[in-house]
Amino acid sequence: MDQLVTTLINALRGIPAELIVFLISLLPLLELRGGILAAGLLHVGMIRAFFICLAGTLLPVPFILLFFRKILDWLRNTRFVRLVRRLEDKMNRKSKQIEKYKTFGLLLFVAIPLPGTGAWTGSAAAALIGMKFRHALISVVLGCVVADVIMCLLAYGVLGSIL
Asked: What are phi and psi of 81, to 5 degrees?
């Protein structure tokens, strides 16, 4: 992930550091984990980075929750049928972890700052299992806050100074 974030930072040179951090936070797979890493590399303060990354990561969440199933249904009628099936299989595997504990399970799933467990995946899985919008949104937002706190503590060395 470090190399990808560094490549993106270099590709986006010339625009303000905060905007780079925001844009990286918007991207699936990288999300706030990549944004916090970029913020550290670009010397953006921890508090500022926290809020920029949280905003960037949360921006697509309502759209994913509302439209993910509709987009998959539409794609099922195109030549991307195989892609849709693979994506649904992957999401269904992730959904099983979430479905067991519903709202709290989604929160935990999103809160764990590992690749493939962020807001994009959690929102898509919630949409696939038909979770209520309000419950899914609250879980994803709280999960992102927890993940953001963890990543800030790790990236900015706060945990290192305590331990």
From this structure: -55, -45
For residue 29, what are its two tokens? 């797979």
* Dist CA 125 CA 74 (whole Å): 18
Give the pLDDT confidence of 61-93 residue by residue, as tens digits: 999 999 988 887 887 777 777 777 787 777 667
39 residue type, one letter: A
Q: What is the pLDDT confidence band of residue 99, given thresholds at 50, 70 and 90?
A: low
pLDDT of residue 135: 92
Segments making up each domain of the chain, as ranges: 2-58, 61-149
How high does pLDDT run on average in the chain?
87
Distance CA 151, CA 115 (A): 12
Nearest to 129 by CA among 100, 160, 159: 100
Distance CA 106, CA 122 (A): 6
Nearest residue to 144 (alpha-carbon basis) of 128, 160, 125, 121: 121
For residue 5, what are its two tokens? 């974030």
Sign of dihedral through CA atoms 51, 160, 13, 35? negative
Angle at 77 between CA 121 and CA 28, to 5 degrees: 20
